[in-house]
Amino acid sequence: MRDTLSEWTRLLTSVFHGFGMTEKRARTEATVLVDASFGLLMAPLTDGGWDQADTAFRALLDRLEPGWRAT
Questions:
Q1: Are 33 and 64 in contact (CB under 8 A)?
Q2: Predicted local confidence at residue 11, as pLDDT
Q3: pLDDT digit string, tens, across residues 14-51
Q4: Quick one: how far is CA 54 from the chain centroid?
């Protein structure tokens, strides 16, 4: 699992860096997205709350995405 999360973090760090973010900021944004997404996948596996997880994921993207544009 650690390798998968690390790979996704590296991939998204590269994408965010390509948006013009500093390496440090790109890594931070990638970590927030990957770790939060992981949590939003794990919770419904235990309680079946897929609709709530979907709503929460969309809210997360709505909050994060404007900052990805402002470099």
A1: yes
A2: 98
A3: 999 999 999 999 999 999 999 999 999 999 999 999 99
A4: 13
Give the 3-state DSSP-derived string for 24-48, with helices as H, strands as E and coil as C. HHHHHHHHHHHHHHHHHHHHHHHHC
**Secondary structure (3-state) at 10:** helix
Query: What one-letter code names the amino acid at 24?
Result: K
Tell me how many degrees the CA angle 26-29-31 measures, rounded to the nearest 5. 105
The per-residue pLDDT for range 46-65, each reduced to its tens digit, is 999 999 999 999 999 999 88
For the record, the structure tokens of 27 come out as: 């890594």
